[in-house]
Amino acid sequence: MSVSVHDICEVFFDIENKYNLNYHEIQGCYAWQLIRMHLYYDITRKTQIFNAPQQKSLSLFDKVKTFLPFFKNSVLKNPFNGKYDKDILIFDHPRKVIFKGEYCDIYSNFLVDFLRDDYSFEVLESPYLNKHYTKPQNYVLFTDAIQLGSYIHKKFNKVEFSESEKELILKVQGELEATFNIKLNLKWMLTTHILNFQYDFKKYVELFKKRKPKMVFVVVAYENHAIVAAAKYLGIEVIELQHGTITDYHLGYSYPKKTRLNGDIPYFPDKLLSFGDYWMNEETSPISRENIVPIGFSYFQEQSKDFMDIDVIDNQILFISQGVIGKYLSKLAFEFAKSQKDLKIIYKLHPGEYETWRQNYPELVEASQFDNFDVIDNSEIPLYRLLAQSNYQVGAFSTAIYEGLMFNCKTFILDVPGVEYLNDLIEKGYVFKINDVDDLNNNLDSFKPTYYDKNFFFKNLDTELLKEVVDNG
Q1: So what CATH class is 304-454?
Q2: pTM (predicted TM-score)
Q3: Where are the domains of the chain?
Q4: Is the pLDDT of residue 95 over 60?
Q5: H/E run at residue 367
Q6: For residue 62, is pLDDT > 80?
Q7: Which residues of 279-304 are buried (b: 16+ CB within 10 A; e: fewer)?
Q8: CB 128 within 8 A of CB 96
Q9: E strand or H helix that includes residue 348
Q10: Tens digit of pLDDT for each residue in 136-183?
Q11: CB neighbour list of residue 60: distance below 8 Å, 6 or more residues apart
Q12: How far does the chain reach from its first CA to its final CA, in angstroms?
């Protein structure tokens, strides 16, 4: 059975409507919310729609080596230490990028800069692959103590589902398994996430009572339900900072009306600060348009300005890879390279693919031997330089596709699982969908993109609007 992202999402929406899952409490929490995205990823892998991300996993040695820093950070950088209030707490993105010579979270850095001199705030940072990369700052503390406590809590506690809860779990699992012809373990998935949530919720309530914030900012709210739930429980406004593409098929954000019959979605933020007006469809958004505030994308604004006016290399085409679809894109790039000897081909790997591409993409290894083909497996060359220099870009549904549009790249989207994410761009003629290498060759020059307003995607940082959000929260 061949299924698509669209198929899976529609099944989710139907089953949510049938069993009222978004409002059904299991073990005292809205458990479906906790597993919605994780279950989606599990199904896309088991139906072979997506590969698992190519990011290198931690070895046992790595885990043991980083366990001691968890204890150290839990003591020295513990957010529960000290008796003081903070008006604003920021839970940033764990993955850090070098920006202005330092590691930082590119999605919340603008907020820290804005608050630094005139506001009372604190940043709560989670480790990325068990490490912290930012340099010490007096306003940055770590969540290691909570994560360590949650890990221990799971080891010594279990969940006893009621008979009615077991019955619902079996019904939902049975319908999903029958629909997609796969095996699932919803009980295990729910147990893991419920135990995490129960511990984390209690600790964040304790933290918020101690610090008494007026508002909480969070990046990737659908991975931080306990933070959102604890803040809402105490009547604290929760604001999410956009960190990537948002579409009708992104289950972190998409809730068609039939899935939210009783109003708001539990554990969803009160507001979203977006990159521009383009993001979030009112038909699928669980919050109103007035609570989606187009602040802008400061990182793009700062990083792109040095490259906006550099010369384009007319015969350069850039492939934008992602781990979940890399097997498709690498094959296309190889076939294209065999058919095109006059074009310079750049294949930009996602950072999660840097260490594994030679094992996972044999066609890419062969293509890298061609004189006109370069594989970029490091971050030394800025992505924005590559986009600015390229007349064409080819990819799937990476945020970089939108960034390439800002550099006027003529854009081709490979028809692979997940192409639904860009349906709007395709339908409006901003980008062109291709099926294979012949499609790419035949439309490389003839495709004429429809005009689009760049500020619609990524506007410059609106500090007046940001001040209004912060001051009126």
Answers
A1: alpha beta
A2: 0.91
A3: 1-297+458-473, 304-454
A4: yes
A5: helix 362-367
A6: no
A7: bbeeebbbbeeeebbbbbbbbbebbb
A8: yes
A9: strand 344-348
A10: 999 999 999 999 999 999 999 999 999 999 999 999 999 999 999 999
A11: none
A12: 49
